[in-house]
Amino acid sequence: MVDQARARRLAKRISAIVATAIEYEIKDPRLGFVTVTDAKVTGDLREATVYYTVMGETVDAEPDYTGAAAGLEKAKGVLRSKVGAGTGVKFTPTLAFVLDTVPDAARQMEDLLARARAADDAVARVAADATPAGEADPYKTPRDDD
To answer: Which residues pair with 35 in a beta bridge?
Structure first.
């Protein structure tokens, strides 16, 4: 029987343990700009997927995705040991690290919304100065035969 609430609690605990270990215990410089964003655990609690993002050293610098992935792969065993010691479950889940695409998707969505707002503003500017194509009252009115 799958206990989804237990899987969610374990996933939350795993993400906290992994984030703390990356920040304070793993001394790999490639992991200096890695942020754990989420974790998911399968229903049988055997596999955990940890989602992460990578920031650049400066605002304009491109993040080192390959270096971060290599650093996480190298530290996978140590991180799994930390998870096993920190959770106390019978079977320590295997860890898989996946680059989180949500921030990029959100950034693209913001760009699309900005373009839509700009197009709406352009239409509103054109409509403000527009006049009707035909008569001011395009509807036919009945004639008065007096």
So the answer is: 53
What's the angle, vertex CA 116, arms to CA 100 and CA 128, rounded to 5? 165
Beta-bridge partner residues of 53:
35
Q: Nearest-5° angle of CA 89, CA 99, CA 21?
A: 45
Report whether 82 contacts 70 (CB < 8 A).
Answer: no
Q: Coil, strand, or helix at residue 36?
A: strand
Do 91 and 45 contact (CB within 8 A), yes or no? yes
Cα-based angle 129, 133, 135 (whole degrees, multiple of 5): 110
Q: pLDDT confidence of 103, banded at 50, 70, 90?
A: confident
Amino acid code (one letter) for 5: A
DSSP symbol at 25: I
